[in-house]
Structure formats: structure tokens, C-alpha cells
Amino acid sequence: MPTLRVERSAEQPNRPTSNWLGRIGQNSHVIVIEGIYLKMKNKVLRLFVVAMILSFGVSAVAIAQKPASSPRPAGSLLSSLPPSDAVALVNVARVLDEAMPKLLADNPAKLAEVTNELERFKTQTGLDARSFEQIALGFTYKYPRQGVTKISTVALARGTFNAGAMVAAGRLAANGKYVEQKYQGKTIYIFSFDRQIRLFGVWNMNLSDLAVSALDSKTLTLGDVASVHGVIDSVRTKKHANADLLALASRDPNAILGFGGNISGPLLENLSLSNDTIARELTAVRQVYGTLGMTSTDLELMMAARTVDTYSAKNLGDTVEGLKQLGAFFVNRLTAAKGALAKTALNNLKTTTVGNELQIRTAVAQSQIAPLMR
């Protein structure tokens, strides 16, 4: 499952450098999120840069996934998720046939690579990512020890699929390491891969066991066994545990990506902020949400932090404006393509305080994303 780890670390020459940020400084903090490796001395700046660049990074990865279809109500799909700390909804239909061809128009080799990965995933699992319209993700945070945050993920996919083809392909790909499990009247197929697999041909995941179950004729759930059990229980009892997060993640039905999450005390503690003022301001944040949209030329990102009161939102906005200025110095350390992207994101960044919410908006040209998708 995807893992976020924040820890103190001296120079680690054997660790791979991040494709997004490169190597910066020594004796700094380290953040590992699904294989992304970040090092920064300034921990306050780190939070800002991680939020901005990772948001575009994750969105760009999501865009590695039919013409845009009329948006379908997302509520029923998101509401089938088990209790989660954060949720996200990806419009696969727009990503595959609209966004990806645009972003990789000048890079046919990469576009062919993505197409091949989609075909490979279909061969391995019997699932065609192109047949799915939406994917809902539920994230649960765990804290095995101080400074370490692990995120377990469960996915729900809405579309068309053939259960027989899925089982046949999964058996073949798992070399016979396959079992069926009955739970609450549903059949769960558990495949043992013991190797890396790209979920839906896009997300790299190191899996030992992948549990898959059909909730109905058009909805599939994937994850570890416990997470799939949680989804089946949620659907059976019709208890929608994530009502607030569901509303946050589905605010814009035309978005390519929408997300919403709760901010807990342990999550903030694991960031190990040394600046007491910043730490205090962040403890006032209760929820975050946002969307990624796409116009004919740009990618548009909106992020919002919901705080305990208007005073906290205003203070946080002042801090973000200060970090924006610090970010301008950091941009100069990046390579040309990365620097151009970061500079545009910072120049276009606007903050607005609405009641107890701080809203941050920015945009970058699609042509600036394309060089980084290699």
C-alpha cells in the first residue's frame, strides 16, 4: 500500500533522488510518499513545496489514465468507501482520452509506454482501465512509530468488466497463487503477485496480495483483504461514514480530480515542525480539500484549508504568502523544466480567505507539465 514516511535523516547517498525536486542540502528531513523522495533543510518551506509540487505531481500521474463524458453523480461511489481519513475521486474517462493525449502530444514514446502499461495490466488482471469511468480512493492513516505515517489505500472503480476474464487473467498472472473467499455474500478474489504491479496500469504498488471483489455489475473494489471487507460492510449496512469528506471531494463534478481529507494531531506531529508559530497555525486546520481542473490550455489547481475560525484562516493565509516569497528563491535551484513549472505555479498563486477557510488557487500551462512526464 502507498506509504508516507517523515523522518529525520543524515545524508543518504544510496537513496534515489526525487524526480521532482532532486537533492537539496544535508541533515534535513525526509518525506517518502509512494516512491517520491524529498530533502529540504527548511521544514516550513518543505510543507509548502510538497503541497504544491506533489499536488501537481499526483495529478499528473492520475493523468497517465475516454472524449469527456457527462459527469455522473459521484456520491454513490464515494459513499461506498469504508471509514477513511481522506478520499479522492478521479475522472478516468477525462484523463484517458482528453488529458493524456494533450499532455503527451509531443512525446509519442511516453504515450506508447502508457498505452502498453494499460495493456499489461489488462493481461495481468483481466481489467481494462479504459472501461472504467471513475475511480474512488479511500486513505487510512496509521502511525506504527514516531515520525512514521503509513497510508493504506482501497480503490473503487465504476465501469464495465467481465468477472470471468478477471479471474482467468489473475490466475495466470499470479502463477496459480490465487484463492477465493466468501464474505457477507460476496466473492473476493485474492491474487498473490509478490512483485510490483501498476494498479490500473498507472500507480506503482508493491503488492503481496491483491483482493478484488465485484460489488455489483458495474462496480469493483480493490485493495488488501481488510480494506475490501470494509467496503463490503459499508455497502451492506449503507452507513456513509465519510459524509463530510464526500461533499468536499465532489464539490466540482467537472474536475479531473477531487479530494478531501481530515487533518489529525498525530499526522501533524509526525511532520516534526521546529517553528512553533507555524506548528500552532497548522494545528488549527481541521480539513483540507481541493480539485484539479483542465481547460483547453492549462491545468488548474484549487486547494483549501478549513480551520477552526476566521482568525486562524487569516493567519494561515499570511503564512502562505510568506512561503510564496521564499519559494521564489528555491525555484532557482531546480532544473530548467522543473523550475519553469514551479515559477509559473508560484506566480499564478492566489490566496483568498472565506470565513474559516483559506483557499489557494494556481494554474500552469499543459505544455509545462509535458516535459516532466518522461
How would you portray this structure in words?
By secondary structure, the protein is α+β, with helices and mostly antiparallel strands. It contains twelve helices and 15 strands. It has helices spanning 43-62, 75-78, 92-103, 108-125, 163-173, 225-237, 243-249, 265-269, 276-283, 310-331, 336-347, 366-369; strands at residues 3-8, 29-33, 36-40, 86-91, 132-145, 148-159, 178-183, 186-199, 203-216, 219-223, 257-262, 285-294, 298-307, 350-354, 357-365. The protein has a 15-stranded antiparallel beta sheet that branches. The two termini are 24 Å apart. Mean pLDDT is 75; it is low at 1-74.
| Alpha-beta classification | alpha+beta
Anisotropy-based shape: globular
Rg, rounded, reads 20 Å
DSSP, total strands: 15
Summarize the helix and strand pattern as letters. EEEHHEHHEEHEEEEHHEHHEEHHEEH
Helix content estimate: 25-40%
What percent strand?
25-35%
Mean pLDDT: 75
What is the count of helical runs?
12
List the helices and strands and how they pair.
Layout: E1 3-8, E2 29-33, E3 36-40, H1 43-62, H2 75-78, E4 86-91, H3 92-103, H4 108-125, E5 132-145, E6 148-159, H5 163-173, E7 178-183, E8 186-199, E9 203-216, E10 219-223, H6 225-237, H7 243-249, E11 257-262, H8 265-269, H9 276-283, E12 285-294, E13 298-307, H10 310-331, H11 336-347, E14 350-354, E15 357-365, H12 366-369
Helix pairs in contact: 1-10, 4-5, 10-11
Characteristics of this structure?
disordered N terminus, globular, single chain, 12 helices, about 375 residues
